[in-house]
TrEMBL record:
All copies of domain IclR-ED, residue ranges: 72-255
Protein's UniProt name: IclR family transcriptional regulator
GO MF annotation, one: DNA binding
Species, as recorded: Rhodococcus oxybenzonivorans
Keyword DNA-binding in record: yes
One GO biological process term: negative regulation of DNA-templated transcription
Residues covered by the HTH iclR-type domain: 8-71
Length: 257
């Protein structure tokens, strides 16, 4: 058996492709784009994508060639929703944050070394940041949700993550290890994280961690908007609201059956 066909090796590649497709929903993406995102050569990506489509896990538009998530994934997701879907518990919290602040509110979940945005509620303020949307993924330490989750992990977990991860290569020197440690320390001091336009200039965000039954930071609530809406004098107000609603959601999730 070759390295390319060994079971765990193939599973890892399939997982990377499925996550890449999910990140490009609902418009989908080409084989080239998905292969690049998954770190695969185009022929390998095409072969795996075609196999996934044969199983109903992906669809391909015959006109554009773009791949999207398939019906079988919907059925599998629906079966798993009762165990993992927390959006019904979070909807009231997101509505309250959006209503009270005028900003767009989001819920992200931790998945390994990443966060995935799983729910959103638009605010009333007409100017919005479009960095976050449902399905988008960021590494831990990137965006306010990823930073606040990372900051609330044990020191040992943070050290191990930063030792194996170089975020500055893709996200710039503002995401170097030293810069991240400074923001982690500030986040631990205030309880909430601030992203001062580090992903897209002028697009700010703030986040607070939501904890599971074991006290682990498993999700994050965040608010995003334009820089003028996130002036320093408003940080305490927004941060306090985020922390209050994060506590409410943590209690709801910890008490569910």
């Amino acid at each position: 058996m070759t390295e390319e066909t060994r079971g765990p090796h193939v599973v890892g590649r399939v997982g990377a492709l499925l996550r890449a497709v999910g990140a490009h929903e609902p418009a989908g993406a080409s084989t080239t784009v998905l292969g690049r995102a998954a770190g695969l050569a185009r022929p390998t990506a095409h072969r795996l994508l075609s196999s996934l489509a044969d199983e109903g896990l992906l669809d391909r538009d015959t006109k554009t060639g773009r791949w999207t998530l398939g019906p079988e994934l919907y059925l599998l997701g629906a079966a798993a929703a009762t165990r993992y879907d927390i959006t019904r518990h979070a909807r009231g919290v997101l509505d309250r944050l959006a209503r009270d602040t005028g900003e767009s509110a989001f819920l992200s979940a931790r998945r390994g070394d990443e966060t995935v945005c799983i729910a959103a509620e638009d605010g009333s303020f007409p100017l919005r940041s479009h960095v976050l949307h449902e399905g988008i993924r960021f590494p831990l330490g990137v965006a306010s949700a990823g930073l606040v989750i990372l900051a609330h992990l044990p020191d040992r977990d943070i050290d191990e993550y930063l030792a194996r991860t170089d975020l500055s290569e893709r996200w710039g020197e503002n995401h170097s290890t030293d810069a991240l440690r400074e923001r982690i320390a500030l986040t631990r001091h205030t309880g909430y994280a601030v992203n001062p336009g580090l992903i897209v200039e002028g697009s700010w965000g703030m986040g607070a961690a939501v904890f599971d039954r074991d006290g682990r930071p498993a999700w994050a609530l965040s608010l995003t908007g334009v820089e003028t809406r996130f002036r320093p004098e408003r940080h305490t107000e927004l941060g306090t609201l985020l922390l209050e609603q994060a506590h409410v959601l943590s209690q709801l999730l910890q008490s569910r059956a």
